Write a sequence for this structure.
């Protein structure tokens, strides 16, 4: 299984970005795709998750109302649409995948497959 993340960049506070994560080599639909982020000298934090089968979505409190996770099954791609960005959203964003889905989807240690990370920088 391979994950390829893209879409990061520099944006002003209040702006928007869309991250993409293409997954290849998956073997079943019972899995979860998630986004985590890691700011310098901080732990990797959960941002959002989507259950591939059924499409249930989960968000960290910091993401609710501003970020939207979605998927395109035909393209095997998950997106993270981010709006109302704040300087504190600056981080490297990672996509991750886990088979099967788990109720501990917010825990980075539950994931065995990670993308390479994409840097999001929000200027004030």
């Amino acid at each position: 299984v391979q994950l390829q993340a893209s879409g990061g960049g520099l944006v002003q506070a209040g702006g928007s970005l869309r991250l993409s994560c293409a997954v290849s080599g998956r073997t079943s639909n019972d899995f979860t795709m998630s986004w985590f982020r890691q700011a310098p000298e901080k732990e990797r934090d959960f941002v959002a998750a989507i259950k591939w089968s059924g499409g249930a979505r989960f968000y960290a409190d910091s993401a609710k109302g501003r970020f939207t996770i979605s998927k395109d099954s035909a393209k095997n791609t998950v997106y993270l649409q981010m709006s109302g960005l704040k300087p504190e959203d600056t981080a490297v964003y990672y996509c991750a995948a886990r088979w099967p889905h788990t109720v501990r989807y917010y825990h980075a240690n539950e994931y065995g497959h990670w993308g390479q990370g994409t840097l999001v920088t929000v200027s004030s």
About this structure: The two ends are 37 Å apart (CA to CA).
